[in-house]
Write a structure and sequence with these properties.
The complex is a heterodimer. Chain A is mainly β. In chain A, 5% of the residues lie in helices and 36% in strands. In chain A, strands 6-5-4-7-8 form a five-stranded antiparallel β-sheet, with no helix packed on it. A three-stranded antiparallel β-sheet of chain A has the order 2-1-3. Chain A is globular and about 45 Å long. Chain A starts with 12 loop residues before the first helix and ends in a 10-residue tail after the last strand. Chain B is an alpha/beta fold. Chain B has helices at 30-45, 65-73, 89-102, 117-122, 134-139, 145-149, 159-173, 177-191, 205-210, 238-241, 274-285, 302-311, 320-324, 342-346, 353-365; strands spanning 11-19, 54-56, 79-81, 108-115, 213-215, 218-219, 229-237, 249-258, 294-297, 378-385, 390-397. In chain B, β10 and β11 (390-397) form a beta hairpin. In chain B, α8 packs across α12. Chain B starts with 10 loop residues before the first strand and ends in a 5-residue tail after the last strand. Residues 127-133 of chain B have low confidence and may be disordered. The chains are: A mainly beta, B alpha/beta. Chain A binds chain B through residues 3-4, 6-10, 12, 38, 63-73, 75-76, 79, 82, 84-86, 94-98, 105, 108-110, 126, 128, and chain B through 134, 138, 141-143, 145, 147-157, 160, 163-168, 171, 212-218, 262-265, 269.
Chain lengths: 141, 402
């Protein structure tokens, strides 16, 4: 789908680079031995800067969901209605995403979901999710 | 801790004014409107601009809001506050001003607000501020987190964020869309009593549920207005207030908290920072939630009110839905709230916290006209900024509460 130009912060460069290989990586604080989200220059728990990027399982559960009946930006106009969700990854971090390849009105809180990718023109990709039980058939919303 | 302790009632709101039109639009430049509403608040207090030695503002100008406003007003300030925490900024200004007045850092403080999103949009402007300038910042590798981690997914902001919180509350506690709609219905009943309100026609639960879905589970009438508006407050010491003609609304307690900026970083979507600022404000005020006679809770969306009712302790966590279902928030109800008609029906220029304080002060002063709740001694103004991000709670009381 068409999305706004994906901005990239200096701190998140390793994340975006990994998306080129369709790998979802999370910043881990090696002092606290836990991941954090979103990418920062230092761990939001201890301000430590020993950070490792580790691949995530790409599995999680829907924490909250809202079907958008209007496009937030012109780029989303053809996608309405679409599901915006917060997904809690099994690693314990929560992030915003879309639930794709399913009826947006059928997405339920607590539902198991898995990672799939929506490519960006420059080779990077946006991490989106689909229900675990349904087969992947592309990433249109 | 050594030194000064908070003194309940050492400062008071002595002037409060709003400039709002039922058309939703105001004529004039922002500064002209702001100057007029400040003048009205000062006149109501029996003071003039020459008495003012402290200024608080969070909008306007280019760079330093309170400093630019003070210059425009001709005020040489010895106390200033440009705190910007969204819609709860004004409650924080009152908290800070009351503390400063107690310490003798200021004697007469003006808090003001103006925003003209509706008429600005009509002239082709952007209304609320948005992502201008972000492209330049992105080129330098500096990106606002919201633009990197939320914008790609097309969440309407801010309504989508509040919708996510509502979805979670419904899933966890069984809160219904009918219960949320009842909040909008009761707020409209108050607006019917306010001649400045944008919407005054009766509204039913069915009307709310039949209005277009914007971001599930929130319908159009679960959402606030977009209107022009301005407001101002004047605060001074209790000592000086006693010599003024206005009835003082004493600041009994106030507190501020925040938990996140982006909704995706909110620790628990069913618990706001109001669970910190509310109890702390009551603690400083020396009152309990059950002693509140009228509540002015930020109603950017119906869910905002529901969460505040729980977090401030007016009902237990998770029971906001049943609490509001019988219409107790409306005129004549057991828990009068949003008596101006709120952001849902009266006005919402982007940051509604100013109008919560204006109405709470009027309720304490007995100056709310047909909306006056009988026998008010304690009123609460509870602001919410960002996407349930920052909250600031102010408890006001009459002289009888001191």
């Amino acid at each position: 789908m068409t999305r706004p130009t994906q901005l990239e912060s200096t701190e998140a460069a390793p994340y975006w680079e990994a998306t080129r290989a369709r790998q979802l990586v999370l910043p881990w604080c090696t002092t606290c031995e836990r991941p954090f989200w979103y990418p920062r220059a230092a761990c939001p728990g201890c301000l430590g800067t020993d950070i490792e990027w580790r691949e995530a399982t790409g599995r999680g559960a829907v924490y909250a969901v809202s079907v958008q009946h209007n496009a937030a930006l012109p780029e989303f106009k053809d996608q309405v209605p679409y599901a915006v969700a917060l997904v809690e990854l099994d690693e314990g971090v929560r992030f915003m995403t879309n639930i794709v390849n399913t009826d947006p009105f059928g997405v339920a809180i607590g539902q198991r979901v898995r990672l799939t990718w929506d490519p960006v023109e420059d080779g990077r990709a946006i991490a989106v999710f689909e229900p675990e039980e349904e087969a992947s058939s592309g990433t249109d919303l | 801790m050594p030194g000064h302790e908070w003194k309940r009632g050492a400062a008071a709101i002595v002037g409060a004014a709003d400039m709002v039109s039922p058309t939703g639009e105001l004529d004039g430049t922002p500064r002209a409107i702001e100057t007029a509403v400040i003048g009205e608040a000062l006149a109501g207090a029996g003071l003039t601009i020459a008495d003012v030695d402290g200024v608080a503002s969070c909008v306007g100008g280019l760079f330093m809001p309170s400093v630019e406003l003070a210059e425009y007003l001709g005020v040489q300030a010895r106390w200033t506050d440009s705190t910007q925490i969204g819609g709860s900024s004004f409650e924080a200004h009152v908290e800070h001003a009351a503390a400063a007045i107690q310490l003798g850092l200021a004697e007469v403080v003006v808090v003001s607000y103006v925003s003209l999103p509706r008429s600005t949009a009509k002239r082709g402007g952007r209304g609320f501020s948005g992502a201008a300038g972000q492209a330049d910042a992105a080129a330098a590798g500096v990106v606002a987190p919201r633009l990197e981690w939320e914008m790609p997914f097309g969440m309407q902001s801010p309504v989508g964020a509040y919708a996510l919180a509502a979805s979670r509350h419904q899933a966890v506690y069984g809160t219904t869309s009918e219960q949320l709609a009842q909040i909008a219905v009761d707020t409209r009943r108050w607006a019917a009593l306010n001649p400045k309100a944008r919407y005054r026609d009766p509204l039913s639960v069915d009307d709310v549920l039949a209005s277009p879905m914007v971001a599930s589970p929130l319908h159009r009438f679960d959402c606030c207005l977009v209107t022009d508006g301005a407001g101002a407050l004047v605060l001074t010491s209790a000592e000086r207030a006693r010599d003024l003609p206005a009835t003082p609304a004493y600041v009994l307690g106030a507190a501020t908290a925040h938990s996140h900026q982006m909704i995706s970083q909110m620790p628990d979507l069913t618990v706001t920072a109001g669970s910190v600022s509310g109890p702390k404000a009551f603690d400083l005020a020396g009152v309990s939630a059950s002693e509140v006679d009228v509540a002015e809770l930020y109603d950017s969306f119906t869910i905002t009110v529901l969460l505040a009712l729980e977090d401030l302790g007016f009902c237990p966590k998770g029971e906001g839905g049943p609490f509001v279902a019988d219409g107790k928030l409306g005129p004549g109800g057991a828990f009068p709230a949003q008596t101006s008609g709120g952001g849902l029906s009266y006005t919402h220029p982007g940051m509604f916290g100013m109008f919560l304080l204006v109405e709470a002060a009027r309720q304490i002063q007995g100056a709310a006209g047909p909306r006056q709740v009988p026998d008010v001694d304690v009123a609460v103004a509870h602001g919410v900024g960002g996407v349930l991000s920052a909250t600031s709670t102010v408890v006001l009381g009459t002289e009888a509460t001191l």
